[in-house]
Every structure is written in C-alpha cells, then in structure tokens.
Specification:
Organism: Zemynaea arenosa
CATH architecture of the largest domain: 3-Layer(aba) Sandwich
Shape: globular
Number of domains: 2
Strand order of the largest sheet: 3-2-1-4-5-6
Catalytic activity: an L-alpha-D-Hep-(1->5)-[alpha-Kdo-(2->4)]-alpha-Kdo-(2->6)-lipid A + ADP-L-glycero-beta-D-manno-heptose = an L-alpha-D-Hep-(1->3)-L-alpha-D-Hep-(1->5)-[alpha-Kdo-(2->4)]-alpha-Kdo-(2->6)-lipid A + ADP + H(+)
Family: Belongs to the glycosyltransferase 9 family.
Enzyme class: transferase
Pfam family, one: Glyco_transf_9
Structural class: alpha/beta
Strand content: 15-25%
Largest sheet: 6 strands, parallel
Order of helices and strands: EHHEHEHEHEEHHEHEHEHEHEEHH
C-alpha cells in the first residue's frame, strides 16, 4: 500500500497549525496511511492527531547538514513505499530527504534553493497568509484558488487525561485553569509575571477550590517561579519542566480554561477545543489565532506592533505591560461560568 509522508515543522505551534493539511490529504486519499517525520520536541503533538498512522522521530542534530546521515535515513524511508511527501520546513536539509528517498511527488514551498529537490513548488503570497491556510494549501495544486482551511484538531482520551491529572496532583473534579507564561520565541511575547499573578488571585478569590497550573518547558520554570513568588503556592502548581509534552497536552485537554502567550501551548489548547485566552503583543493576532469554539484574542494593537521582535526594540514593552489583567479576567469569567 502506498503511503504519504509529511515532514513536520520544528516548532510545536507550527506543528499544530499544520494539522489541517493532513485532514485535506486524508479526504483526498482516505485509503492512504499518513506518516509524519518530526523532531522529538514535536512528536507528542503528532501522536495526538488521529489522521497520523505513525510518527517517525528525526535522528538528526540541529544545525549541520549531515548529508551522510540523511542519505542513510532516506534509504530506510525508500523501503516504506511513499507515493508523495509534503515538506513543511523551508530549509534545503529537509527537502533533501524525500529526494534521496526517491519519493515520486515532493511538495513544498520554494524555500531556500530547493528547485529539483521539490517537484511541486508553492509560493507564498505577500503579505504572508495566516499559518493554517498556509500549510493547508499544500494539499492543492499550486495554481488552485485558496479555499477555507479546516481548523486544527487534536485528541486525548480520558484515561490519559486522568493519568496526567494524577501525576500533577490535580483532583479530577477540581476546576483547573492553566497558564502558559513562557514563549520560546523570546521575552517580548511574555505577559508580565505580575499580570499572571493578579489573574491567578482573581481566579482563586472567585473559586476557593480552583487550581491554577502553569505549564511550559524547563526554560519557563523561572518565569513561573516569579509568578509563585507573588501569589504564594496555595492552589498554584508550577508544572513547567515537570511534565512531558504529552502530559501537558493531556492536562490541557482536561482544563476548564487556558490563558497563554502566543506560544505552542496556546495552539495545543486551541486544537483541543478548550476555552482559551490568547495574549498577543509583538505578534499579529490575525496570523495565528486560536480556533476554539470559545476563544478570545487580546491585543492592544499599538502603532508599534506587531514588531515581531524577540526583545522590545523601543525598550518599554507596552504591548504587554499595558495589557491589564482586568481585560483577561473579563474574558475569563464567562468561560468559568460555563462549567
């Protein structure tokens, strides 16, 4: 049986927003299994995608071309019988893999020097499209008119949710509000710790039994600790670096609401269709919005934003500093009332 290979983006949020491409590919060829080649950091996201037959983890180190290693790995892929491959990263390194594997149809955006390596080449519009339709368009002919893309979707079964809650020390019947205070891109994307702390105070004051959990990578633990220093530890959990990504995904699937910076965990929450508040400062809320049934995007849309910089070039960080906790609270209350 012929198979399809999708080569994943390297960022968690981008991997989530690429999922609608698989929905379109499955609609076109429902009989064809879809495998995803992903970095270990993104693999748990793809394991929560029901359209994926198998997740293959990339064995390559970050940075070097590693041509010999790619050639060896391509030989393994050749034996799996792929009819087509969709290369989502824009680098030459990932376009080499399906070419070396002899996959007949190789689809992707022009990227860096990829003529010949890809034989179905798409070009992005100016200004760039939002991320979901950007990836979903690869399922169509490059000359086809743009169509509305389906929204991203992930799934976590109830047993995995219960196991994640038990490990985190969260009672299954407690109201769970999750914060994602980190952002891999850089500090400019981060809502100030004191704002998260004030929002946590409002949640706990309204519901004395609510639990506020903070998720993120080990790099985010310091930012979460800063919030704890302000709020105290009562009914607060710093889970940054203490949960694997698959466990964090399962906790999000169980949450009553998620408040997140523009980050990978924001898009995980959106794809799990959890009530979500998305906080935007230096990035464009229209470029990668949440798609949950219940979602609010908060942005001051200052004249200086979106600057898309890792650190505020003006030094004031007003796009996040002046986004007050009260605005997030007003958006959060109706979500908590839904329970």
């Amino acid at each position: 049986m012929k198979r399809t290979l999708v080569i994943s983006p390297n960022w968690i949020g981008d991997a989530v927003m690429a999922q609608p491409l698989l929905q379109r590919l499955k609609q076109a060829h429902p009989e064809r299994p879809i495998d995803v080649l992903a970095p270990p950091s993104c693999a748990p996201v793809w394991r929560a995608v029901e359209d994926v037959a198998e997740v293959l983890e990339t064995p390559f180190r970050h940075g070097p071309l590693q041509l010999k290693e790619r050639w060896r790995y391509a030989r393994q892929l050749r034996a799996r019988g792929y009819a087509d491959a969709y290369v989502l990263p824009n680098t030459i390194k990932y376009a080499l893999i399906p070419w070396l594997a002899g996959i007949p149809k190789r689809v992707g955006y022009k990227g860096e020097m990829r003529y010949g390596l890809l034989n179905v080449i798409h070009r992005d519009d100016e200004p760039p499209r939002p991320m979901v339709p950007f990836y979903a368009a690869l399922a169509n002919d490059p000359r086809a008119p743009l169509a509305v893309a389906p929204r991203p979707r992930l799934h976590v079964d109830e047993e995995a949710q219960r196991a994640a809650c038990a490990k985190a020390g969260v009672r299954s019947d407690a109201r769970l509000v999750l914060f994602a205070p980190g952002a891999e891109f850089g500090p400019a994307k981060r809502w100030p710790a004191r704002h998260f702390a004030e929002l946590a105070r409002m949640v706990r004051e309204r519901d004395p039994h609510a639990v506020v959990g903070m998720l993120g990578s080990p790099k985010d633990r310091e930012a979460c600790d800063e919030i704890l220093q302000i709020t105290g530890t009562e009914r607060m959990l710093n889970l940054a670096g203490a949960t694997r990504l698959d466990e964090a995904i399962a906790l999000i699937a169980h949450a009553d609401a998620v408040v997140a910076n523009d980050s990978g965990l924001l898009h995980v929450a959106s794809a799990l269709n959890r009530p979500v508040i998305a906080l935007y400062g230096p990035t464009d809320p229209d470029h990668a919005p949440p798609f949950s049934d219940v979602a609010r995007s908060l942005s001051l849309r200052l004249d200086c934003s979106p600057c898309r910089q890792r650190i505020c070039p003006l030094g004031h960080h007003n796009c996040m500093e002046k986004l007050e906790p009260g605005a997030a609270w007003d958006a959060l209350v109706p979500m908590l009332d839904r329970r």
